[in-house]
Specification:
It is a single chain. This protein is α+β, with helices and mostly antiparallel strands. Helix content is about 65%, strand content about 10%. The chain has eleven helices and seven strands.
C-alpha cells in the first residue's frame, strides 16, 4: 500500500531543473492513465476491439513513462507523451471525421506544447511521432479498420500533406525555442554578472562601514583624554580660583565646562552607535510577559528621573517576538526617552506603547502627545547628528534615533514615524528576523 501511495506522488529531486520537469510531466502522465482506463472500459463495452487493443499498448507505454520519470529519464517520456495521447484519443473519437481534421488541428498544438515544456528537440521528435500516428490512422482508415465519412477520399498522399505541415510546425517551434534559449542564456549571463557586481559592491560597502566604525571608535576614545583634562582644569579654576576671576571669566569657564560635558555625551552616543553595529546578535523568543517586564523597568527608571512630572502611560498588549533582548531594550529606551523629553512642556503628558497588526505582521509603536515635527523633514529623522529641534529647546545629540534605526535594521525590520508640529509623534517598527538564521555579526 505504501508503494502504491508513493507512485501517486510526484518524485522530488535535488536538482531544481529535474524537480520542475518531474512536477510537469508526472501529473500529465497520471491524467493520461486515468483517461486510458476510462477509454478502455468504454471501448470494451462498445466492442470497439481495434481501439481497445491499441489502448492497451498505450497503457503499457504510460506505465513505462511513469517509471522513466521516477528514474529522471525525461527525454523519452517528453517525446512520446504527445504521440501516445493523440494516437489513443484520435482513434477513440474517430466517429465520422477524417484523419485530416483531427491531425491537422490537434498535432501542431501538441508539437508546440512539447517544445515549450520539454525543449526544442521534443518538437522534432513529436513531429516524427505525429507523422507515424497519422500513417497508422490513414492505413487503418484505408483498410476499413476505422470508418469515416471521408474514407473514400483518403490515400497516402494525405500523409505527405499532413506530414509536411507537422514537420514545418516542428521547424518553426525548434527555431523559436532556439532563439529563446539563446536569449535566456544571455540573460542568465547578464544576471550572473550583475549578481557578481552587487556582491563586490556589498563587500566594498561592508569594508567601508567597518573602517568608518573603527575610525569613529578610535577617535572617540582618543578624544576622551584631552576632554577630561579640559573639563577637569576648568572645574578646578571655577572651584579654587573663582575669587580671582571676574563675572565674565567665570561665565567663560562655565561655558567651557558645559561644552565639555556636552562633548562627552556626544562621544558616548558615538560609541553606543559603533557598538550597536559591532555587537553580535543573540536573538531569542521573547514572551509577551518578558516584553512588559522590560518596558516596565525602562518606564520606572525614566519616571524616577522626573518624579515631579505627571505622565499618563498606557501599556497595551504586546505579542511574543524573536529579537535580541539587549538591543531591543536599547531601542525602547531611546524611543521612550524621546517621548518623555518631547512631552516635557505638555500640561498633561500622554505616552502609549502598543502593537497593531498590519497584513498579519505585528507593528510595534510608541506614541506621545508632545512637540512633534514637520513630516517634510521625516527623511532626516534617523540620520546621525540630525536634529529637528533647537538645542536650547530640547537637549540631545541627534544620535539616539540613528541607533534605533540600526537596531531595527539588524532585525530585518523597518522603522518609520508619523507626526505633526505640536500634535505629538508616533514611531512604528517591525521585527522580522529569521528564527533559523545563524547568529550574525555586522562587520
Amino acid at each position: 500500500m505504501k508503494n502504491i501511495l508513493s507512485w501517486l506522488r510526484s518524485p522530488h529531486f535535488k536538482d531544481e531543473d529535474d524537480d520542475k520537469r518531474a512536477a510537469t510531466l508526472y501529473p500529465i502522465i497520471q491524467v493520461m492513465v486515468v483517461i486510458y482506463i476510462v477509454l478502455s472500459i468504454f471501448t470494451g463495452l462498445k466492442q470497439q476491439f481495434i481501439q481497445f487493443y491499441i489502448l492497451q499498448l498505450i497503457g503499457v507505454t504510460l506505465i513505462l513513462n511513469l517509471f522513466l520519470v521516477r528514474r529522471k529519464k525525461f527525454k523519452i517520456p517528453g517525446y512520446i507523451i504527445p504521440t501516445s495521447l493523440l494516437l489513443g484519443v484520435t482513434i477513440v473519437i474517430f466517429n465520422g471525421q477524417g484523419v485530416h481534421d483531427v491531425a491537422m488541428l490537434s498535432f501542431p498544438m501538441i508539437i508546440a506544447l512539447s517544445g515549450l515544456l520539454i525543449g526544442k528537440g521534443a518538437a522534432i521528435y513529436s513531429a516524427i511521432g505525429g507523422v507515424a500516428c497519422v500513417a497508422i490512422l490513414i492505413h487503418a482508415e484505408m483498410n476499413n479498420l476505422l470508418s469515416s465519412d471521408f474514407q473514400s477520399y483518403t490515400d497516402y498522399g494525405d500523409l505527405l500533406i499532413i506530414g509536411t505541415l507537422l514537420i514545418a510546425t516542428a521547424a518553426v517551434v525548434y527555431t523559436t525555442m532556439d532563439i529563446i534559449s539563446k536569449h535566456l542564456i544571455e540573460l542568465k549571463r547578464l544576471n550572473d554578472e550583475l549578481e557578481e557586481r552587487v556582491a563586490e559592491r556589498t563587500v566594498e560597502l561592508e569594508n567601508t562601514n567597518k573602517d568608518l566604525e573603527s575610525f569613529a571608535y578610535s577617535i572617540s576614545h582618543d578624544l576622551r583624554a584631552p576632554l577630561r583634562s579640559i573639563g577637569g582644569y576648568s572645574h578646578i579654576l571655577l572651584d579654587d580660583f573663582s575669587e580671582s576671576l571676574d563675572e565674565a571669566g567665570k561665565h567663560y569657564l562655565q561655558n567651557i565646562y558645559e561644552n565639555v560635558k556636552q562633548m562627552n555625551t556626544l562621544i558616548d552616543e558615538i560609541l553606543a552607535l559603533s557598538r550597536t553595529g559591532r555587537q553580535e546578535l543573540e536573538p531569542r523568543n521573547l514572551s509577551s510577559q518578558e516584553l512588559k517586564e522590560m518596558l516596565q523597568g525602562i518606564l520606572n527608571g525614566l519616571i524616577a528621573l522626573e518624579e515631579v512630572r505627571q505622565v499618563e502611560i498606557t501599556l497595551g498588549d504586546l505579542p511574543d517576538c524573536f529579537a535580541d533582548p539587549v538591543l531591543l531594550k536599547q531601542a525602547y529606551v531611546n524611543l521612550l526617552s524621546n517621548a518623555f523629553k518631547f512631552t516635557r512642556h505638555c500640561p498633561k503628558a500622554q505616552i502609549e506603547i502598543g502593537c497593531q497588526l498590519e497584513d498579519k505582521l505585528p507593528v510595534y509603536y510608541v506614541h506621545d502627545n508632545g512637540a512633534g515635527f514637520d513630516m517634510a523633514y521625516a527623511d532626516k529623522l534617523f540620520g546621525v547628528f540630525q536634529r529637528l529641534h533647537r538645542q536650547d529647546e530640547y537637549e540631545g545629540t541627534g544620535v539616539g534615533l540613528a541607533i534605533v534605526h540600526r537596531i531595527i535594521t539588524r532585525h530585518n525590520g523597518k522603522i518609520w514615524a508619523t507626526s505633526a508640529p505640536n500634535q505629538g509623534a508616533t514611531f512604528y517598527f517591525t521585527l522580522n528576523m529569521n528564527k533559523t538564521r545563524p547568529r550574525a555579526k555586522l562587520e
